[in-house]
Amino acid sequence: MKLSPQTIQAAVDAAHSSSAPNIGGANANYIPYLASVPSELFGVAVMTTDGRLYKAGDTDYAFAIESISKVFTLALVTELIGSEAVRQKVGTTPTGLPFNSVMALELHNGKPLSPLVNAGAIAIVSLVSGVSADACWAKILDMQSRFAGRPIALSDEINQSEQTTNFHNRAIGWLLCSAGTCYSDPMRAVDVYTRQCSTLVTTTDLAVMGATLAGGGVNPVTRLSVVAAANIPHLLSEMTMEGLYTASGDWAYQVGLPGKSGVGGGILAVAPGKLAIAAFSPQLDLVGNSVRGQAAVAYIAKALGLNLFGS
Ligand code: DON
Whose C-alpha lies nearest to ligand 1, atom 8? Predict the structure, then answer.
């Protein structure tokens, strides 16, 4: 059944108004910039694979992409080295442990298992070829921009805030290096990983990026192919298994869509062949997922009957 514009806009409006009173959680505070973002901000957007946009609330506010960036660098590396090499070199299975877990690495001889936890994402960055950190970074930024259909930019303020506090991730980089699972200089990989988390996106950008995944890799705004259609199922399966970290299983059980969250408060879900739902609100639950964002995305998925396991 084709969803009418009125049906989608009504779901977006109702998701925003019904989730807005949900003021639980707290801004991430381990990155100083994130603690300073106004907590009351809340945006919800849907973009269909044929380029129709529906939105409510603060959808133009630019926030830190954070971990949602992991999906787009995974897309780039899957294009560069192939899905099987990603599986061999990094792994493609959930860890069952928090996104920055060192224990997960220790338990698996330094193999990250998932490209969507910090260790796996740093290993994925280390697989982006380039003669320098800047060359590697240029490819990653270009991929984020192609997904968004407009030039995405680094926030120097966020990057500075992250680069001066990312000691835990540097420790993960050295552990990867000692296990042979970092494929470039580890501090270069952590530097570039930190930059990829520090770009600014709006809720509308996230919806376009997600709709590119929903549309077999074709950006609904530019109509350009960003990633091979054959790689999309690999990306969406990783999002299903690890996209909301240790809440991913509950998310699949309750919502039934591949998703990805970031500690900046962004969240994205993909209904393959149809649309993407994006939301942003900075207050996070204990796992690191936006409280209002999850509520709004879940509301729309249910209202529009998008659960992949439904029928
Ligand atoms: O590496 C970090 O800790 C952050 N730059 C990103 C983590 C993140 O977004 C995890 N998300 N839920």
Answer: 67
* Six-digit token string for 224: 């350009």
Ligand 1: residues with CB < 6 A are 66-67, 99-100, 118, 162, 169, 197, 245, 261-263, 288
Measured between alpha carbons, how far is residue 256 from residues 172, 239, 270, 305 in Å? 31, 11, 10, 10
pLDDT of res. 202: 98
Residue 25 DSSP one-character state: S
- Which of 47, 12, 2, 53 shows the shortest CA–CA distance to 275? 47
pLDDT for res 43: 98
Q: Provide long-range contacts, Cβ within 8 A and 24+ apart, for 113-116.
A: 114/90, 114/238, 114/241, 114/242, 115/70, 115/74, 115/77, 115/86, 115/90, 115/91, 115/238, 116/67, 116/70, 116/71, 116/74, 116/238, 116/239, 116/241, 116/242, 116/243, 116/260
Sign of the dihedral through C-alpha 179, 183, 189, 193: negative
Give me the pLDDT at residue 97, please.
95
- Stated pTM of the model: 0.97
Ligand 1 centre to CA of 168 (Å) is 11
Residue 186 tokens read as 């580890």
Q: State both tokens at 223.
A: 């109509």
Taking the CA atoms of residue 229, residue 237, residue 111 and residue 70 in that order, the dihedral angle to the nearest 10 degrees is 70
Q: pLDDT averaged over consecutive 10-residue blocks of the chain (311 residues)? A: 92 98 93 94 98 98 98 98 98 95 96 98 97 97 98 97 96 98 98 98 98 98 98 98 96 98 98 98 96 98 97 68
